[in-house]
Specification:
Number of helices: 17
Helix content: 55-70%
Strand order of the largest sheet: 2-3-1-4-5
Distance between the termini: 85 Å
Structural class: alpha+beta
Oligomer: single chain
Order of helices and strands: HHHHHHHHHHHHHEHHEEHEHE
Radius of gyration: 39 Å
Shape: elongated
Number of domains: 2
Length: 486
């Protein structure tokens, strides 16, 4: 339906010129003013639909379309009200040139979530500096009334060609590295518009405006509306076409390098302006270099901040993954990894590893009698008490599972493990946590201790021996310690 309307628009334009030859110029202005405004409206609509983050590009495109429409309005003023038939009046030529600045800003400024307002301000400053240099350069070649010679008019047409080709190349680069749906559709619309516009305006400026028909009113005028209608179609049709998958390296390179496009355009134009206004050109070069440098520094600082945040969150997640949520002690995973590190140490003199397996006596009966909340409170108190007993640096106490704890002691002989085990047993008994269904009347623990030289036998054997010793303590009446030495 939208394609049909676009075709009807072009046919109406051509038909009106053919049927009303006496008003051909006025008719052309109506249609040539309407086409960019239709494109701008489509861009605004798409931007509002995409959301704020993705809408900036569409709104900048709309601004470019409005600038072009204002250029056409200035041309209408020169033709119809000032009776100026010059092919390149200064006001309309400047506005036709400036249409590309917001489009280039949309292409070069890679807006990312969390990007500082200062970075966006620098992008805007570079765009404003580029606009000012265009103003200086245009009016150094032509006056408000227009070009004084054909050479000047041809130069302005060539400058427009160079600008269009630069914008086309920049948009094609961004399009080639689009891996997200909204970016893919946006840059596809931009490439479509700029590609058609570059060809159409080059033909129209060199062979029609500077050729056989310097004023509007030709049957070839509808050509100028085609790129705007093509863009309006692309903006209106959202579609669900998924982008291809470009190389991640290409995506990173293009996104990180795209801000260079605006600085490069400003730098090139500043060099051109040097010949006419030396100090203005030098200022433009300084602004381009310092602006891009400041932007890169701020962006790099933001990346470092983001990386630090990610690293911090990663550390927090790693800590959570290795911590028991109830007691705050290391969990089974942390204990297993600590045992692995202690047992397998290539290139290091073998050391003795002592393992304590600790179990709360009659814990099921405690839960049944006092409830699970009391059981959880008991686990927390015992975990805190056991942790306070430890004095050796490098020992790791953790919750092995359920009511069971484990203590890994690297470089400790069996006797040291027995001493610590007895302290742990006495400490828990001294807490005097009531337990009516225990023969001892209070909560107690049983401990199994095993010790072996690291790496001489499978690690599973050390764990099995500690389990066996713990089972022996329970079988012998609980609230006691049993040891197994390899």
């Amino acid at each position: 339906m939208t394609l049909l309307l676009a075709c009807v628009f072009v046919l109406l334009h051509a038909s009106a010129i053919f049927l009303l030859p006496a008003f051909a110029m006025q008719v052309s202005y109506v249609f040539l003013l309407s086409a960019p405004l239709v494109a701008a409206a489509a861009a605004v609509r798409r931007g509002m639909h995409e959301g704020w983050r993705a809408s900036r590009g569409w709104l900048l495109m709309a601004l470019g379309m409005v600038s072009w429409a204002l250029g056409m309005l200035a041309s209408l003023r020169q033709d119809l009200f000032l009776d100026n038939a010059n092919a390149a009046p200064g006001d309309s030529t400047l506005l036709f040139v400036l249409y590309g600045v917001p489009i280039l800003l949309a292409i070069s400024a890679s807006y990312v979530e969390g990007e500082s307002l200062l970075v966006r301000a620098i992008d805007t400053l570079l765009a404003l500096a580029l606009s000012y240099l265009f103003y200086v350069h245009v009016f150094s070649v032509v006056t408000l009334q227009g070009a004084s010679s054909r050479v000047q008019a041809e130069y302005m047409a060539t400058m427009l060609d160079a600008e269009n080709l630069f914008v086309l190349l920049a948009s094609a680069i961004r399009f080639s590295a689009s891996d997200r749906r909204h970016e893919f559709q946006f840059y596809r619309a931009v490439v479509t518009f700029v590609g058609i516009y570059t060809v159409v305006t080059a033909y129209y400026n060199h062979f029609i405006a500077l050729g056989d028909h310097p004023g509007f009113g030709s049957l070839r005028d509808p050509l100028l509306g085609v790129p705007f209608l093509a863009f309006a179609l692309a903006a209106w049709r959202e579609g669900d076409h998924a982008p291809r998958r470009p190389s991640p390296t290409l995506v990173r390179m293009v996104r990180s390098g795209s801000p260079l496009l605006m600085a490069l355009a400003l730098l090139v134009l500043s060099i051109v302006v040097l010949q006419e206004r030396f100090y203005v050109g030098v200022t433009g070069i300084v602004v381009a270099v310092l602006g891009y440098g400041a932007r890169s520094t701020l962006t790099q600082a933001q990346h470092i901040k983001n990386e630090e945040g990610l690293r911090r969150r990663s550390d927090e997640l790693a800590t959570m993954a290795h911590t028991d949520s109830l007691t705050g002690l290391p969990n089974r995973r942390a204990l297993d990894e600590a045992l692995e590190r202690a047992w397998y140490r290539p290139g290091v003199i073998r050391d003795r590893v002592t393992l304590l397996m600790i179990d709360i006596d009659y814990f099921k009966q405690l839960n049944d009698t006092y409830g699970h909340q009391a059981g959880d409170a008991c686990l927390k108190r015992i975990a805190e008490a056991l942790k306070n007993v430890l004095g050796r640096q490098g020992d790791l106490l953790g919750r092995y599972g359920g009511e069971e704890f484990a203590l890994v002691m690297r470089g400790a002989p069996l006797q040291a493990g027995l001493v610590v085990a007895e302290r742990l047993r006495q400490t828990v008994e001294a807490l005097a946590i009531e337990h009516s269904r225990s023969p001892h009347g209070v909560v107690t623990i049983s401990v199994g201790v095993s010790s072996a030289m690291a790496g001489l036998r499978p690690l599973d054997l050390l764990i099995a021996q500690a389990d066996s010793a713990l089972y022996q303590s329970k079988r012998n009446g609980r609230n006691r310690i049993t040891a197994v030495d390899d």
